[in-house]
Amino acid sequence: MNKQLLLAGFVGSGFAARFHYDALQRVFSVKVEVAGAYSPSADNLREFTSQRNLKAFESLEELIDASDVIHVCTPPVTHEPIVVAALRKNKHVIVEKPFTGYFGDGTEAFNGDTFSREEGLEATLTSIRNMLEAEKASEGLIMYAENWIYAPAIQKEREILQKTGAQVLWMHGEQSHSGSHSLAYGQWKLSGGGSMIGKGCHPLAAAIYLKHVEGRTRTGNPIRPKTISARTHAITRMPAYQDEGYLKTTYKDTEDFALLHVVFEDGTIADVFASELVMGGVHNWLEVNTSNHRTICQVNPNTSMQSYTPDGKHFRDVYVVEKTETKQGWSSISPDEGWFAGYQHEMDAFYRSAAFGEPVESNGQLAADVISTIYAGYVSAARKGAEVTVPIL
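That's the Gfo/Idh/MocA family oxidoreductase sequence above. Prediction below.
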């Protein structure tokens, strides 16, 4: 689609739609106009569109027809049908993370603690295949909205890998904080899992992406995950957990801690931690150990700005950083949190791909590898950490 002007359509009207819209205001490589939005929640749609002077569409089909690029900013259980519908009309699709997953059997009795992880993996693979097959038959592309890929620190490491020809030997990283405010997050049927998918998807995606980059640089083909060993725990759901009120405890049938050990096709490894057990704000980082350099990517927090106040009341109206419990004392303030997290870079790159045909760094293959690895990880965790082969699609 070799166009200078692209029309964006938003499916969804919640948190993700808002930050997608904000990020679009910083896209400068291409002229973007928002065609409008659609959401099954009429009240939320009205609020989202009226505040931004956007058109509210009455159906998904009408929005797709009016747009060049569709932003899928809905719960992951709805991603597959929206993505397939847009691709069938040859539209590009920016789909939020997680890409897809398993959300139960549709019954009231479904429990995330007891279902067969093997069945969950197979259902997830079917969903992934459906989207990848739709992409193959389409002129549109899947653009996986994993902002970690476009975080400046990760993109700088991509450049270093390409210019040094390094072999990535071991990566380890983490995304953790004190827990989600969303009640949906703690229910498997709505979220598709707990910490492993909700938080682990970010550093895992960055690790897999850098192995893709290394492989393409060295041989022309991405290096992909081969096996995973994983453990999950529900610490805040234990009867003996001592709740002092600092961590969220609203998880009904999902884990609040996950550890992933991934072995790649070339025998190199990555370890990822993800949890709801960490105070002091979001803890997002990835360390890359290679044959000729070592890089530590601090996505959040970082030390670009630090400020101290003896009493949090002085910062009552000051946004400091996501998920911090207090503003008293020293704070690592993020002067532009979206910039460090890669949101604006992500959108600019996606629209360059849509307009000029540039390769999509965070593409459908990456999304497939991430989600296949995670759900193979759930199988491993159910087997108390036994090594499980990652299905490669």
